[in-house]
């Protein structure tokens, strides 16, 4: 049982507004103050969370909150008199009023036992430079609390590493589970264990049947043409824990609420998430297999091309497009994944998830006479082995696997061999015990764009001044010139998002007015997806054009730098930097 992202966000907002209406925060502060005065003896140096929770329960605050929120058996039957709110974090001035029904109640223990979605726990490590590393990913079975005495239980979870270290223990996590509100009736341990055993048996049987079907399907595919054995037809992929999953289970329509407005903005968001290939131990030039689950990908804020493609495909499906992930190769035979959308009119569009670029596919017809002009592909893709989404999996069975001659008529089984939709549904549809838990809703960015832009700009000014000082040059900043660079940075980001260039005429006119006759202006824009000023400056200096500006010497040299941070959901951001200088030209 899971709620759509929009409904879940709406419910969270209503709960927050009800808590505000009841002034719960003030009551908690009063209880905290009383507890500290009355119960914190001199020998105790700190008040634990458990002590505070007991005090809240003793004073009836928890019961008041539960009664006021009025939990319901079926969330879909709940009526809210206000209009639905977007999944962002703001509170309306007029709190919505819950329309209460007489028969509303909390789901009972038996109903909750049927909810098989686990709690996904992701552990990441962040170093001093802001770089994140995925440490562990664990799916917690929470239903043991349904049979626990007093509805409270403690479990010790051993966490293991990811990727090549998925068999290496990284530590033990002690977790306390407690059910609120209290259930009227607990289940016996035998009933809970029986349910778990039945689910495991059912999942194992579905996985076995799907594997049998997949092997038979693969044999049929090879009988079409023996050379198909060399094509990249990816039916299963390992997640961060080394578990083999059908590739279709990594895709699910994902709605972004009010956080992303268009498919192209979604493509831009995915492209500014960091790119990092899974680490490989040893040589040989091979690629480590690791497709991250969505939560792990978003928590670490970076991933491989498959992670980007899976997320972009899910978002485009959420926007109502017929989207597929394509698996094939780029130049030099490098394996790659990208996204394709299939229009109602048959238009095929490729979306590069690492850059946000879009390409219209027009196949070359090799049988046409030489005099017929053929389209020139602009995309970087060379071969394609298969396409898939959450419901379909199709393998390319055309004579050539070259993308430029490929015909994407997915309904023609002589060109694309499909897998059974029912077979895919048995192991990949929502609610199946073998699939990943529901995708988490995207969160609004916690980054303040203006503050972060100012901080980075000041740090870059210090770095430039120190660098010039080491060279024996003085540094004079032109604040007005720095400000005039802002429109250019905004235009660059707009073009990356929409493909439309605008505002260049005004920028050129402003710069000409700011640079006196007989002076020269030079500018160098660059784009990053991280917020580390020292790392960005070191990268900039590797460009001879930027170094020429930063190390400019001459008469009346004035320097300028402008930083503009554009924020996207989660912690994704696009950072645009422009260095510039003006100086008097001397012949």
TrEMBL record:
Q: List the SUPFAM superfamilies.
A: Cysteine proteinases
Question: In this protein, which residues make up the domain named CEP76 C2?
Answer: 98-184
Location in the cell reads:
Cytoplasm, Cytoskeleton, Microtubule organizing center, Centrosome, Centriole
Q: What is the lineage of its organism?
A: Eukaryota, Metazoa, Chordata, Craniata, Vertebrata
**Cytoplasm recorded as keyword:** yes
Alphabetical list of InterPro entries matching this protein? CEP76 (IPR052299), CEP76-C2 (IPR028926), CEP76_C (IPR056288), CEP76_N (IPR056289), CEPT76/DRC7_peptidase-like_dom (IPR056290), Papain-like_cys_pep_sf (IPR038765)
Q: What is this protein called?
A: Centrosomal protein of 76 kDa
| Stated role | Centrosomal protein involved in regulation of centriole duplication. Required to limit centriole duplication to once per cell cycle by preventing centriole reduplication.
């Amino acid at each position: 049982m899971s709620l759509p992202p929009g409904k879940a966000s709406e419910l969270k907002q209503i709960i927050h507004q009800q808590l505000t209406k009841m002034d719960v925060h003030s009551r908690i502060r009063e209880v905290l103050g009383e507890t500290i005065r009355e119960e914190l003896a001199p020998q105790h140096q700190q008040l634990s969370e458990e002590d505070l929770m007991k005090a809240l329960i003793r004073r009836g605050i928890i019961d008041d909150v539960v009664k006021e929120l009025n939990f319901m058996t079926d969330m879909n039957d709940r009526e809210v008199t206000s209009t639905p709110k977007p999944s962002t974090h703001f509170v309306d001035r007029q709190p919505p009023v819950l329309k209460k029904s007489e028969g509303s109640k909390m789901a009972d223990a038996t109903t909750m036992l049927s909810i098989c979605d686990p709690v996904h726990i992701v552990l990441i490590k962040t170093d001093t430079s802001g770089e994140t590393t995925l440490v562990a990913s664990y799916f917690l079975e929470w239903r043991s609390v349904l049979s626990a005495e007093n509805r409270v239980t403690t479990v010790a979870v051993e966490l293991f590493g990811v990727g090549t270290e998925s068999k290496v223990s990284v530590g033990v996590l002690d977790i306390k589970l407690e059910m609120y509100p209290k259930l009227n009736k607990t289940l016996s341990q035998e009933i809970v264990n029986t349910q778990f055993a039945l689910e495991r048996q059912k999942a194992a049987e579905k996985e076995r049947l799907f594997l049998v079907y997949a092997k038979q399907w693969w044999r049929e595919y090879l009988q079409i043409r023996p050379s198909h054995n060399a094509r990249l037809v990816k039916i299963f992929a390992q997640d961060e824990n080394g578990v083999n999953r059908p590739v279709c289970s990594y895709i699910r329509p994902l709605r972004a609420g009010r956080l992303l407005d268009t498919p192209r903005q979604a493509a831009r968001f995915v492209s500014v998430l960091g790119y990092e290939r899974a680490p490989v131990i040893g040589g040989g030039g091979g690629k480590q297999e690791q497709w991250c689950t969505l939560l792990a990908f978003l928590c670490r804020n970076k991933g491989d091309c498959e992670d980007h493609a899976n997320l972009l495909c899910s978002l485009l499906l959420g926007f109502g497009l017929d989207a597929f992930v394509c698996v094939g190769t780029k130049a030099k035979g490098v394996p790659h994944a990208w996204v394709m959308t299939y229009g109602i009119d048959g238009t095929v569009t490729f979306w590069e998830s690492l850059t946000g670029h879009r390409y219209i596919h027009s196949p070359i017809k090799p049988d046409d006479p030489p005099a017929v002009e053929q389209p020139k592909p602009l995309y970087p893709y060379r071969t394609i082995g298969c396409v898939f989404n959450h419901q379909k999996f199709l393998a390319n069975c055309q004579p050539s696997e070259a993308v430029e001659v490929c015909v994407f008529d997915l309904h023609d089984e002589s060109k694309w061999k499909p897998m059974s939709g029912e077979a895919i549904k048995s192991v990949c549809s929502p609610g199946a015990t073998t699939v990943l838990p529901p995708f988490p809703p995207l969160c609004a960015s916690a980054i303040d764009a203006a503050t972060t832009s100012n901080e980075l700009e000041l740090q870059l000014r210090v770095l430039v001044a120190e660098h010039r000082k080491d060279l024996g040059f003085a540094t004079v900043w032109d604040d007005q010139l720095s400000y005039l660079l802002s429109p250019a940075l905004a235009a660059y980001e707009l073009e990356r998002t929409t493909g439309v260039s605008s505002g260049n005429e005004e920028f050129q006119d402003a710069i000409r007015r700011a640079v006196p006759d007989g002076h020269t202006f030079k500018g160098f824009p660059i784009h990053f997806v991280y917020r580390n000023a020292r790392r960005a400056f070191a990268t900039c200096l590797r460009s001879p054009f930027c170094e020429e500006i930063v190390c400019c010497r001459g008469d009346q040299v004035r320097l300028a730098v402008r930083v503009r941070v554009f924020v996207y959901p989660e912690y994704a951001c696009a950072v645009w930097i422009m260095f510039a200088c003006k100086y008097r030209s001397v012949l």
